[in-house]
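Researcher: Here's a chain I'd like modeled. Treat it as a single chain, no partners, no ligands.
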Amino acid sequence: MIVHTFAPRRAALGAVLLAATVSVGACRKGDADAATAAADKVVMVSPQETYVVGERRIETGPSMSGSLAPDQEATVRAEVSGTVLQTFVDQGTRVGVGTVLARLDDTAIRDMYLSARSGVTAAQTAADAAARNLERAQKLIAAGAIADRDVETARTQNVAAQSQLADAKARFASAEKQLDKTTIKSPIAGVVSVRSVSAGDLASPGAALFTIVDPSSMRLEGSVPSEQLSSVRLGMPVNFTVQGYPDRTFTGRITRINPVADPATRQVRILASIPNTGNTLVGGLFAQGHVASEARTGIVIPSNAVNQKDFVPTVTRIRNGKAEKAAVTLGLEDSGTETVEITKGLAVGDTVLVGGAQGMTPGTNIRVRAVSDRPAQSE
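Model: Modeled as a single isolated chain. Structure tokens:
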């Protein structure tokens, strides 16, 4: 007879099952305790990690980049030859219309001027004498004292004298203009941006001597992608930032749109006029911005408050002291100010988390740290 003994194996299996049951129970209790601890934990966030929702204006449109240049600029050139005797301005000097910038040596031109003036005096004397002679001849022929040919001679002499006087006056006017050109004057009001000559230099006709710019008005010479040209119109505002003022936005208006796109870049050149209040902007600065082809007022929040990794965009807001995920619908986006419009899902007065804080686990207790909550620094 064969006897099978299963009792010890069953006892061992029962012990294993009992141990497993105890272990699972312990794990579940541990998870529950951890969840309870997480729920009870309060996470402190700084005011910079929160944003109170409100209504504001948002703009969007084609991106634009370019450089600034003075809207009015004049290059002052020499019109006559001469050595520069003296300059009266330097770079940065503010000038008005007619301000004397420099003087050229006028010795030769002044001699010509004085000669021409003497010529006018002599021609005037001769013309006056010829006119008196003609008047006397006309009286004498009326009395029958002279022949007709004598009157004709007097008349011819008078015409010639008047012609010579006119020629002398023309030569004098030309010499006077040439003399005036030895005094270099500013044609516009503005600021000297370039001084190309110094005392002792020889100036020749056409040589650039000074550059004057009017800083009260600037222009932005930029370009936009040709595929977005339909969104660009004359008179539209252009908002941009420049080097040196990264936190300040400037505004201009489109005054010109090039009718031909650049074949190499497929960009279209546009010009925008910019009022330069306070002369803050200077020529040559690089500018980046966008054409405000569409704008409206609505609920606008920072772009880094939105999680767009999921199928539906979400934000994390603080509701009753806890983190809460909320699905939102996006509207206009402004890459320049890094803001986005929320058309659905948020209300004015909601507080949302921004930056890294917006990834907070839903249900987490949150407290916004006040200035007085900052830990004291050890000495």
